[in-house]
TrEMBL record:
Protein name per UniProt: biotin--[biotin carboxyl-carrier protein] ligase
Class of enzymatic activity (EC top level): ligase
Single GO molecular function: biotin--[biotin carboxyl-carrier protein] ligase activity
UniProt-listed Enzyme Commission number(s): 6.3.4.15
This protein's record includes keyword Nucleotide-binding: no
GO cellular component: cytoplasm
CDD domains: BPL
Lineage start: Bacteria, Bacillati, Actinomycetota, Actinomycetes, Bifidobacteriales
């Protein structure tokens, strides 16, 4: 159920923006309006490999987190958006879709970096694809170096971190049924080759939530942060909506291109994403605590992202484990500190003298 006026805009013919006042979940909305396979939104996704739909909400009342958890957003201070796209079913069966979380994280990190650079007055380096967020290779008009004011990282499996604290999260939802564009599919537009050559396509919905201007007290003790801690973010209202929508559109543009590459050459794109993940890895070489859905908990050292997008953890005995699902936190539990109270008793020993 959603409330408020809906309106769509196309950008460059490939991105359709849907704005909602209030919605239970942007992820649910995007899924329900495209998974059926017969509506105009579904046909739009199948027209081109670059096409995606961005659903943005002013207020989300029932957001989803990973493993069935709740995602809480702050009205007037959060970006809550979901991006729908059609991907080859083969990419799912071969495991390439495991990299969609990293793909979304890279798109978000690069968009945020561009925003930081724009606010600092620095210029973009020539090779933006290889530049790391938080780098110092930025120059102002006078040629002086300007550091990006925040360090952006990706924490396996689905978190965006800034300056060591959680800034946002990502949720991937995949459809199981093949999408059918029917006879209305347009095969004349740019980028249609992969989408129009007849292979089965399934729906992928990428949910992204980012704390933009959330007051610190709203985090309720969680180790989280907001963009407003490092830059000026407009207060709630039209100015904030423009700020949020600009960020969402920037992410959508990057997702559009990266998803097109993913559809055309999934194996090559996944190799690129693994390289980016290695550079953005928040956990790499850190001691970690792993909690599995089975209830098992163990500690080790994060060794990086594997070829299948799982996390490799080195154990104390020298062996390694690959984690495909679970919770991972930096650091290891400290043993309980026991205070030993000693009592000195003065005693007299009778030596029988």
């Amino acid at each position: 159920m959603f409330y408020g006026k809906r309106w769509d805009r196309d950008r460059s013919g490939h991105i359709r923006l849907v704005h909602l006042d209030t919605v239970n979940s942007t992820n649910d909305y995007a899924f329900e309006h495209t998974a059926g396979g017969s509506g105009s939104d579904t046909r739009f996704l199948l027209e081109s490999t670059k096409n995606c739909i961005a659903v943005i909400a002013d207020n989300q009342t029932g957001g989803h987190g990973r493993l069935g958890r709740e995602w809480v957003s702050y009205p007037g201070g959060s970006l809550t958006a979901s991006f729908a796209a059609a991907i080859p079913q083969e990419a799912v069966t071969k495991g390439y879709s495991n990299w969609l979380t990293v793909l979304a994280g890279v798109a978000a990190a690069d968009s945020l970096e561009d925003m930081f650079v724009s606010c600092s007055g620095a210029s973009q380096p020539e090779d933006t694809a290889s530049a790391l967020p938080g780098g110092s290779d930025r120059r102002n008009n006078s040629g002086a170096a300007i550091p990006v004011p925040a360090s952006l990282k990706l924490k396996w499996p689905n978190d965006i971190y800034m300056d060591g604290r959680k800034l946002g999260g990502i949720l991937i939802r995949l459809g199981t049924d093949s999408l059918d564009g029917g006879s209305d599919r347009d095969t004349s537009r740019e980028g249609t080759a992969a989408a129009g050559r007849g292979e089965p396509m399934v729906l992928a919905v990428i949910g992204i939530g980012i704390n933009c201007a959330v007051p610190a007290e709203k985090f309720n003790g969680f180790d989280a942060t907001s963009l407003s801690s490092v830059m000026d973010v407009p207060a709630a209202g039209p100015s904030f909506a423009a700020f949020r929508d600009g960020l969402a559109e920037s992410i959508a543009v990057r997702l559009s291109q990266m998803l097109s590459d993913f559809k055309s050459s999934p194996s090559e794109t996944c190799r690129y994403l693994r390289n980016r993940a290695e550079k953005l890895d928040f956990l790499r070489a850190q001691p970690v605590t792993v909690s599995l859905p089975s209830g098992e908990t163990f500690t080790g050292t994060a060794k990086g992202i594997s070829a299948d997008a799982s996390l490799t953890v080195g154990l104390e005995d020298g062996s390694r484990r690959r984690i495909t699902v679970g919770d991972v936190s930096a650091g290891v539990p400290q043993p309980a500190q026991h205070t030993i109270h000693t009592v000195t008793v003065n005693s007299t020993v009778n030596k029988g003298r």
